[in-house]
Amino acid sequence: GRFLFWPRADLHLGWEQIEQIVDPAKAVAAEEKTRDFNHKYGLAIRGLREEKKLTQTAIGGLTARHLRRIEQGKQPVTSSALRALAKAHGMAVEEYLKQLARRIEKGRNTTPARNL
């Protein structure tokens, strides 16, 4: 996409970020979109884990608290968390991501996030 780059300030701004700075409503909408994304992926992660009958403590490299926050959409999933989840499911990261995408497409985010 298009962006502005100031090398001395180490600042990268895309058009969307500039719009969000100028228009607070756009910033709120972007935050809402991010929350929705994290929530959908969190539900998919949880649904896939439960489908495979894995407990939150069975995911090596992630604490149950960290995984719970990801599954509730309160924390975005990181690449290291994805690697740990894929490994626990016996899949390559790419296959794990495909499984999540399929769940989201089909609306198979089984149970709504709840406090565990």
Percentage of residues in helical conformation: 55-70%
- Compute the number of strand runs: 2
Average pLDDT, all residues? 87
Distance between the termini: 40 Å
Rg estimate, integer Å: 17 Å
Low-confidence sequence ranges = 110-116
- Largest β-sheet summary: 2 strands, antiparallel
Shape: elongated
Beta percentage is: 5-15%
Order of strands across the main sheet: 1-2
Query: What structural category arises from helix and sheet content?
Result: mainly alpha
What is this structure's SSE topology?
Layout: E1 3-6, E2 11-14, H1 15-22, H2 24-51, H3 64-71, H4 79-88, H5 93-106
Antiparallel strand pairs: 1-2
Structure report:
The chain has 116 residues and is mainly α. 59% of the residues lie in helices and 7% in strands. The protein has five helices and two strands, in the order ββααααα. The protein has helices at 15-22, 24-51, 64-71, 79-88, 93-106, and strands at residues 3-6, 11-14. It has a two-stranded antiparallel ribbon with strand order 1-2. A hairpin with a 4-residue loop joins strand 1 (3-6) and strand 2 (11-14). Helix 1 (15-22) crosses helix 2 (24-51), helix 2 crosses helix 5 and helix 4 (79-88) packs across helix 5 (93-106). It is elongated. The N and C termini lie far apart (40 Å).
